[in-house]
Amino acid sequence: MIKKIIKTTSPTLTIACRELRSHFDSLSAYILLVLFLGFSGIFTWIYGSDVFFYGQASLQAFFSTAYVTLFLLIPALTMRTIADEMRGGTIEMLLTKPVTHWQIVAGKYLSVMLLITIALALTLPYYATVACLGNIDHGAVLCGYFGLLLMSSAYAGIGLFASSISGNPIVSFLISLAIGLLFHIGFGIVGHQFGGIGGQVAICFDMNSHFDSIARGVIDSKDIVYFASVTFAGLFAAEKTLESKTA
Fold first, then answer.
1. Domain that holds residue 127
2. Residue 50 forms part of a structural domain
3. Which long-range contacts (CB under 8 A, 24 or more apart) does 86-91 make?
4. Chain centroid to CA 188: how far?
5. Residue 97: how many CA atoms within 13 Å on its side-chain side?
6. What is the mean pLDDT of each run of 10 residues along the chain (247 residues)?
7. Of 25, 44, 71, which is closest to residue 130 (Cα–Cα)?
8. pTM, rounded to two decimals
9. How far apart are CA 161 and CA 15, in angstroms?
10. How many domains does the chain have?
């Protein structure tokens, strides 16, 4: 059983490592890290609703900024993952090896999540600095980081699906951003404008409400199921789209 699991996950890890290495070789990883750390640093410490504006030892300003920044950067990070493989014809070469469509999608998803995890890990000095300023709620901070990872996972799934639709990275970026906007603000607007069952259903799909709940330090199983479902739906759709285009 263990050998079977290793045999299944080995190609996924190999693809993930290859993708992560390609991100750093092409400078895209460095650009992502600089932009993320730059924007999150400015709005956490200097501009607008920063740490000092809240007047307490809290990373709420960082989580709010990171939420928006990652929403914009993840489509740019995922737009080439599958689109470039299809445009360059390397996807057929990859499929000649003992690897499945799901392992390809999962490997690319894992590489994106690893890069996002690295980006979030580089912000831990923010946590240490704020903790030195006063009594910080460590549980709320951990939940905030957990919420950012869950949100990033959902948008990564959406981004991979968008990348599988078109061989043009720019088109993939726009599709990913459009779908992301639907979850980011679209469902929330519909839910608050219209009442009844339709409005309640729209609110259930609103990503802001689920993220805010976790960022406040409340981990509910329904929020985790929501992010896991959006992630899986995106990855499953990407796999099926890839299968149809390489059949």
1. 15-245
2. yes
3. 86/164, 86/167, 86/245, 87/167, 87/168, 91/242, 91/246
4. 19
5. 13
6. 47 87 84 88 70 65 88 91 80 78 92 94 87 79 92 96 89 93 86 73 85 85 93 94 82
7. 44
8. 0.88
9. 17
10. 1
